[in-house]
Amino acid sequence: MKNRIRWVxxxxxxxxxxxxxxxxxxxxxxxxxxxxxxxxxxxxxxxxKAVPGLSSLLLTEAFETPxxxxxxxxxxxxxxxxxxxxxxxxxDGKFLTEPHNSIVSSSxxxxxxxxxxxxxxxPPVIEYGNRSSPNSRWxxxxxxxxxxxxxxxxxxSIRAFAKPYADYSGAYQDNAFELKTLLVQTSVPSGSRYExxxxxxxxxxxxxxxxxxxxxxxxxxxQSISRPGDSLDLVLAIDTTKSMVKNLRAxxxxxxxxxxxxxxxxxxxxxxxxxxxxxxxxxxxxTVAFQTDFDAVQSExxxxxxxGGGDIPEAVVEALYAGLSELNWSAANRxxxxxxxxxPHPSPRGSVTEAQMRQLAESKKVExxxxxxxxxxx
Length: 378
Hints:
Elements: H1 2-25, E1 35-40, E2 43-49, E3 56-60, E4 75-77, E5 90-91, E6 94-95, E7 104-105, E8 109-111, E9 115-122, E10 125-129, E11 138-142, H2 143-147, E12 155-161, E13 172-173, E14 176-178, H3 179-183, H4 198-205, E15 207-210, H5 214-224, E16 231-239, H6 245-254, H7 256-263, E17 268-276, E18 285-291, H8 294-303, H9 316-326, E19 333-340, H10 354-363, E20 367-372
Parallel strand pairs: 15-20, 16-17, 16-19, 19-20
Antiparallel strand pairs: 1-2, 2-9, 3-7, 3-12, 4-10, 5-6, 8-9, 10-11, 12-13, 12-14, 17-18
């Protein structure tokens, strides 16, 4: 009987010990809700929510086996980056000589969405392993190119440490993620009629019209070019991310007919296009020069495909800037209209700013209009 009681007590203590270990490891267990990704001009920026008990993060191959018999390597940038160049890393009790180029962070900063968060910069091309050792693996991964290939993805691990500087002398845990799943758009991300931040974001850029549906939006475009004058240059900047599948189909089928009729009122009428997505996509912006041939414009529209997009904000500012800077404006009336269902980035993710875009529009005497589209299931 005593042995049985001892055995029961032992099992209870063992359970408490395992529960204690699990509680200790909880801060090192990362979920998709604690990680967000921003695609920027210089690559992907990962933000990981900082919690008590989590002291540093390191990007590695995905992922190390529990017995540690299969070596996995830290991922490195090819050269120092602005985000990580001052971050230290410990290995075998010694700080690595800088620049070590490891993608590591022990320094949480304030993030608008997650609060205190660690930032890790994953460049478009990374490397791993030891190039000089004959018994070691080494390689490079072209992350952007890999994600642009249909059916391909990029698995990596966010290795979470209980100690700073990615110090293996304390507890650590691998958290495997596939980058494309963190970036991919989902069907109708929110339950509201318009995507969160769309109205505020578009209104910040200029005259924003909230269309009830795509046909209302197309009617607004026709109304926008109904004006006196002998000549008109019109540029349409069209969101071509995945959430625009249905809207883009309607644009292809219904856009040019009414515009063609309106164009007859002008002695000279030209139309140009800008297709836009976001940073690290197959393209950020793609411009089509001014055309007088509507069949040629229709051909360009027909070739457009709605895919990609990543997080909700898109390159609206960059699209307007591309239309303003890359097309040769000359008509007396000049209008550029952005058509999309996602807001612009709240802050620049590349070299183009809202102030630059507005200044360019003013100098070229181009009127900016924006048409907001409600969400559609895709």
